[in-house]
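Appendix B. One record, verbatim.
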Amino acid sequence: MSDLTSYSHLKQMLRQVTILKELSRIDEYNYIARLLDFYWAQAASDSYYALIVMEFVEGRTLKNFIEDANNKTLELSSEMVNKIIFNLLSAVNFIHQANVLHRDIKPDNIIINDNLEITLVDFGLARTSPDPEAIKELAKETPISKKDKKAMGNMLNDQREERKSRRRDLSPHI
């Protein structure tokens, strides 16, 4: 259950649910843990809670799998490693074909079962990427001049400096 007291938490939760709903609809190879349901409720006048119900995925994290291999409690052959890498790349390819960027792939977010099949979990930081063809068309239609690029660079530098100064202002309070 997640506390949705801030707008950013709510936005992240809704993004995750939307992405999981779409991936669950098209995933026929079980590369992701399917979204089964989503609930949210108001707990207080300004507090909301959300619950994402996912399918149970049999297995253990890739982190635990690697630890067992390092501790010699699991014998790992080169064929097993090849199969794991192939399955992981297949899972990543699947989500990328769906224009989803996971943005948090790490051994803790990869479940591996006894057949060395991979399931990706935790899409909390995931984003959808625009269609590459649409990006190419947009680039053709809207060329950016050197003057505009310089202005955007200055704006980004100003924003970066502003964030740095805010961090410095907050540091004595933390």
